[in-house]
Amino acid sequence: MNKPLRRVALAMMAMVLLLMANVTYVQVIQADDLRNGPGNGRTQRAEYAKQRGQIIAGGQSLANSVETGDELKFQRTYPNGPLYAPVTGFDSPTYGANGIERAMDTILNGSDDSLAFNRLSDMITGRAPAGGDVELTINPAMQKVAYDELTAKGFQGSVVALNPKTGEILSMVNSPSYDPNPLASHDNNAAAESWQQMENAEGSPMSNRSVSEIYPPGSTFKLITTAAALDSGYQPNSQVTDAASITLPNTSTPLPNYGGKTCKGSTLTEALAHSCNTAFAEIAGKVGADKMRETAAKFGFSTDLQIPMTVAKSDLGPMSDQASLYQSGIGQRDVRVTPMQNAMMAAAIANDGKLMKPQLVKSTRAPDMEVIDELKPEEMSQAVSANAANQISEMMLKSEQNTKGSGKISGIDIASKTGTAQHGDAADKPHGWYVAFAPAEDPKIAVAVIVENGGDEGAEATGGSISAPIGREVIRAGLQGGG
Amino acid sequence: MSLPGTSEGTGSSAVSQVNTRRGTELVLLVISAVIVTFAIMLVEISQENTITRQLFYYGAAYLALFGAAHFAVRKWAPYADPLILPLVALLNGLGLVMIHRIDIAKDTEYAVRQIAWLALSLVLFALVLAFIKDHRTLAKYSFTCGFVGLVLLALPGLLPSAISEVNGAKLWIKFGPLGQVQPSEFAKILLMIFFASFLVSKRELFTTAGRKFLNVELPRPRDLMPMLVAWVAAIGIGVLEKDLGTSLLFFGIVLVMLYIATERAIWVVLGLSLFALGAFLAFQTVTRVQSRVNVWLDPLHHEDGYQLKQALYGLGSGGIGGSGLGNGSPETVPFSNSDFIITSMGEELGLIGLIAIFMMYLLLMMRGLRSALAVRDSFGKLFGGGLSFTIALQLFVVAGGVTGLIPLTGLTAPFLAYGGSSLLANYILIAMLLRISDAARRPQTPAKPKPQQAPIAEAHTELVERPR
Hints:
The complex is a heterodimer of chains A (483) and B (468).
Chain A: H1 2-29, H2 31-35, H3 42-47, E1 55-57, E2 60-67, E3 74-77, H4 81-88, E4 91-92, E5 96-97, H5 99-103, H6 105-108, H7 116-125, E6 133-136, H8 140-152, E7 157-162, E8 169-175, H9 188-200, H10 209-212, H11 222-231, E9 245-247, E10 254-256, H12 268-273, H13 277-287, H14 289-298, E11 305-306, E12 310-311, H15 322-329, H16 339-350, E13 354-356, E14 361-365, E15 371-374, E16 379-382, H17 386-402, E17 415-421, E18 431-438, E19 445-451, H18 463-480
Parallel strand pairs in A: 1-6
Antiparallel strand pairs in A: 1-2, 2-3, 4-5, 6-14, 7-8, 7-19, 9-10, 11-12, 13-16, 14-15, 17-18, 18-19
Helix pairs in contact in A: 8-18, 11-13, 11-14, 13-15
Chain B: H1 13-16, H2 22-47, H3 54-76, H4 84-106, H5 110-131, H6 136-140, H7 142-158, H8 161-164, E1 165-166, E2 169-170, E3 173-174, E4 180-181, H9 183-201, H10 203-207, E5 209-213, E6 216-219, H11 225-240, H12 244-262, H13 265-285, H14 287-297, H15 306-318, H16 341-374, H17 378-402, H18 420-441
Antiparallel strand pairs in B: 1-2, 3-4, 5-6
Helix pairs in contact in B: 2-3, 2-4, 3-4, 3-5, 4-5, 4-16, 5-18, 7-9, 9-12, 9-17, 9-18, 11-12, 12-13, 12-17, 13-14, 15-16, 16-17, 16-18, 17-18
Organism (chain B): Saccharopolyspora gloriosae
InterPro entries (chain B): FtsW/RodA
Subcellular location (chain B): Membrane
């Protein structure tokens, strides 16, 4: 019987070899396809298996993880969800992450190289592994005031406030906003339901207006035109046109001042203080498209910017002929900016022409609170000369004096510029802008406010009437709160 | 190493010098205890993040259990193959580690129960070695074994589903809260005893040639009866007990034993043809079988493919090196500690770990077969061959099923998977293999030397003294 026994041995070897060949195929050749297969939740489970770090601002926790009894061990919660949603973003098992949750993911989940030592010591000491914390530059008082001001009247819009000297982002607010909590739910159906709800909600609450939406800047763009002018030899007292209306070159289209009135003054300073369209259209025409583009770029237009979330590029459009150049000079036509870009513009003027890179992360910390990395202010460019910046600043002080709207702060000089941007809305309801910094002599806060579609004033709205009061309240909160 | 005193020792000095290699066995057992302890340590680090002294108690308890088994072998089967027990111990230990690891993840307590089953299994293992001094005595009870085996095999299929059905297969007998046993696990050994003995006694009949057809000698039709009976029985199990794995296992064992006994490949060809016919009929008529085959063809997209899909994802995420013990998520695969424990291993130990496990099984089977080759009696050869092949077939069917090589059927990986009946039966199987191996390696008692007698023609003429 030995011969068949030997053959059976060969058959058994062949069986085991077949098994080995098959697992080799599955685990080596098919492995990548399998990892991305439908319904494979392994990576996700690994991600939620340990405690994710906190997102902190001004000593408050904006996002933290609590232990749950279910399959994914930790769930993310957002105290004051809608208030901070544009900053924190969400971390959802169903929809992934965005905002700081995504941008700082490796720190928060503890996989960052800078946390390697902590991981090792966790293993040795038997401490539960956890992610690192991210501390933000956000000033909670300013964030709250900005959010309350925007939402009190049901405005759609955004507020961005910066520290002009360091580039720290003091507030970043959207209205309407959304609550990230239901998206972080471990119940896929519940998360999907609230996602659908927010997708269908009016005013697209999940869009981060501060950095992702681009708007026509209207008259606030005249600050860039002014900067270009001063850089091209204009002086604050240079004579400019005060005509009530001019005709765009090579067309018969008239370009009138606001309300069709003659400008109250014919110097550059007066033109900015009264926001005269005709003067700035002509200035843009004189300095030329290249100079306009160059100046805008120094203020941060057309640059790739991470704060660490990606900021949409602000842009001047093609400016293919003289007529469009004229229109661009007053922030119409194809010029588009993010609220962040407008705040950067104000901040650069406030900081002697020096544009600091906006940053949202103040520090990152290991789970044992030891600081891993701290914010280092970064200069992006010298947008205009310090001298020109101070001249623009003077003009903005005058502009503020001419700006109506409530909320003026006694004893503090604000330098500002309003904008009322037409955007082809059928009912002709303009976007109201307000960019400002204060105190003018030693700027601590630069702010940009946009209220979409005329806020509660419809076609009658101006930046001064709907946006300026919000901007001033934010500045007040910042200065009082020690910002 | 000195020979331990045994009740059967001949006491002759020639025998006492044979190296039984029991020391090697003990050293290998200690090594496997170290590996298992180290593995539990890794699980604790990644799952609980602490290392407690408890771990070393586990390791010590494991060593004590198998140490006891070792002494049972040393006492009652001193010449047995020294590799078999350590291989079984290591497989069993790794299985326990994985069951424990899944317990932590799912907050269950199967590892403790498995250890209790293991202790019971080792008691039975020792009893088998102690009471069955010679495997040939089993042949004397072959008809009893055959009858009891058949009853055990058929019983769950005939009992009402309420006390015999678990997860869709009617393979069990439930004793309320006490637990449940799978009698077919024991039936397979009993039936092998019967079959081995039956085939040995009727061996001549099966080798008698029938008519020739296309140059192949076919068996006589009446000799086909045992195989047809086995075939019908296998189909009966498949239909009544709704379990294809068990059905396949029985038919496969019968076929291989028939082949070993008759040395004629035609039996295998005929058997496989019958099997193919049965499989085709099952595929045509049973929706459960159709579903299994369709899942096998496209596991990632078939609606019933959830188990296999999760298992393959586990294997894929393990890759070559594995996620490391305690770092994967094998618990997301259904039955991750029993039917699918192979893929749990594949996920956390990777391709390297799985190949190592397959190699351990291969070694185990080869040592078993080697004993069958070396043993001197036909019954032992046939029985030993059957036992070894059982391990191979169980492994192939379950591992092939959960890794997508063949359609999925319900069997458990011997020693690795959670399951009391399987553990008990497989330890009895190993005890019998060790018994055969002991007989194979035992030095033969030298017969009394016969006086040399020269052929008459060449004999010297001797002067025979006349008695006074």
